[in-house]
Amino acid sequence: MVLVFASNNEHKLAEVRQIMPFGISVLSLHDIGFEAEIDETGQTLEENSAIKARTVYQWLKEQTVNGIDGVFADDTGLEIDALNGAPGVFTARWAGEPAENRKKALRELADKSDRSCRFRTVITLIKDHQTTQVEGIVRGRIAEEEFGKGGFGYDPLFIPEGYNKTFGELPAELKNTISHRARALVKLVDVLKSYQ
Asked: Which of 44, 129, 130, 152 is the residue whose CA sits 20 to 30 A from 168?
């Protein structure tokens, strides 16, 4: 089975490819020659994930590309309890660059004792003209400062429940078994098995 993951984010692609079982090949947007910017105009993770998947699926139909069995896209949000779920759908562009986003999170929580939060990933799969959405959630808390150089985005700040290290400190192999994206991908794989 060959699927297009509607992303060019190398970190995400590596994580997805590591989790996908044998027999499922994952292509990036670069691999298929898709170069357009996709406007993420949705107000929710579900809407943005669907927009990305639909845009690439439609493009593939217009290009009459053969040998591709489906398209999937994800959208991920960090939802901080003390900030009423912010940054949520604006997670990636809350303050601009990833380092600025992390600084903003620390500033916003400077006077708050509740640092609980969750990472949530929504994946939209379009295969055989059917659309399916799955979700993965990992709860945790925001650290007092950045720790670790691993991962990307908010990983140096996010301490998952049951651990005392951030995603930025945990080995990628471990993170890829407990992360929000990993949990959503496990559900995606279950859906894909139903097609076989």
From this structure: 44
Closest CA to 167 of 134, 138, 136: 138
Considering only CA atoms, which of 191, 179, 94 is closest in space to residue 140?
179
The domain containing residue 41 runs over which residues?
A: 2-193
- What integer best gives the mean pLDDT of the chain? 92
Distance, CA of 60 to CA of 69 (rounded, Å): 11
Assign residue 122 the CATH number of its domain: 3.90.950.10
Residues carrying an active site annotation: 75
Does residue 196 have a pLDDT over 70?
no
pTM of the predicted model as reported, rounded to 2 decimal places? 0.91
State the sign of the Cα–Cα–Cα–Cα dihedral 41, 46, 51, 52: positive
Q: 116-151 pLDDT, tens per residue?
A: 999 999 999 999 889 999 999 999 999 999 999 887
Per-residue three-class SS string for the chain: CEEEECCCCHHHHHHHHHHCCCCCEEECHHHHCCCCCCCCCCCCHHHHHHHHHHHHHHHHHHHCCCCCCEEEEEEEEEEEHHHCCCEHHHHHHCCCCHHHHHHHHHHHCCCCCCCEEEEEEEEEEEECCEEEEEEEEEEEEECCCCCCCCCCCCCCCEEECCCCCCCCCCCHHHHHHHCHHHHHHHHHHHHHHCCC
Specify the number of domains making up the chain. 1
